[in-house]
Amino acid sequence: MTALVPAERGVGEIVFVDALPEFVVVVFAAITHLADPWFLFGLLAVAYWFADERVAASPRRAGATAIAVVTCAYAAVALAKAWFAAPRPPGAMGPADVPTWLPGLLSAWYEAQVLSDGFGFPSGHATGGAAAYLALALLYDRRWTARGRVLAAAAVAVAVAASRVVIEVHYLVDVLAGLIVGVAVVLGALWLAGDPRLRGGPVLPTNRGPTADLDPTPAFLLAAVVSFAAAGVALAGGHAGEVAEAGIGIATGLGGAAGWRLVAGDEPAVPIRIAVPSLAVTGALWIGAYALSDSLVVTLVATTAAVVAVVALPAVPARLERLSLVGN
């Protein structure tokens, strides 16, 4: 199967990007952050917690489904990378050619951006970016026009994909495959969640949009299953790094499904007084999960706890209120 994705799969794009001005490359190194996993999941969590009926008929269902979509996207990437085991461009291995005019802190940041290990096909940033921004455009459907939202999502996704080629951590074919996989995952996950636009359901009343009856549970569970398959493929190939990534996918999928069982789906936005400390706790758990990725058990426990907390948080205010009433 690896012959389908050869190690040398460039079509001249490396020569092109080598000729770009250093300033342009630095700008694209910044753009690539728009699809970093920490940024995407942080963005999706904030939208899930704080969105209201001005952006979606059921903002909690829309937000949880968006998280499930991106979880599926990363699961698909983990499986494909472990399966094809295609290397990145030589430039991703270093040493980094850091512009001399960058100050010290930015030099360190730039070097971290343009060096990357692991496998290269498909691009996780291109896949995750396409899935996240398209999901946001389709699920938060009460702002702008549908065409405007999709065009904006496409612009961001393409910019991120281009950035991965410009900083030479992916070939062009890697990001094109990522964009295709990302779009396909969105359509498949929304179908699983029960989106009537994809299932040919009846037109809903004006006060109910396509998010009103979404259930993200099947998409979360699919992500766990695909991640489990990715872990098996990675283990068979001896790819320890991909095993850890697949483990995080399993925990995220199962944690999302478990957390959603605690949510009714019609909760109001999360109060700031609860969201801020929760963000600190879940962020610490996420950082710990990645920092301690050498211990798969710790990674799985920390990731599961973080995702359950993120998804279940909208139900916490009402439960705390009931407890205070009982206490009084």
Q: How far apart, in Å, are the first and last alpha carbons?
A: 65 Å
Shape annotation: globular
Low-confidence stretches: none
Q: Structural class of the secondary structure composition?
A: mainly alpha
Tally of alpha and pi helices: 14
Strand-residue proportion = under 5%
Mean pLDDT: 90
Q: How is the main sheet built?
A: none
Write the element-wise H/E pattern from the N-terminal end onward.
HHHHHHHHHHHHHH
What's the total number of strands? 0
Q: How large, in whole angstroms, is the Cα Rg?
A: 20 Å
Helix content: 55-70%
Any overview of this molecule?
With 328 residues, this protein is mainly α. Helices cover 67% and strands 0% of the residues. It has 14 helices and no strands. Helix 2 packs across helix 7, helix 6 (124-139) packs parallel to helix 8 (172-193) and helix 12 packs antiparallel against helix 13 (296-312). The chain is globular.
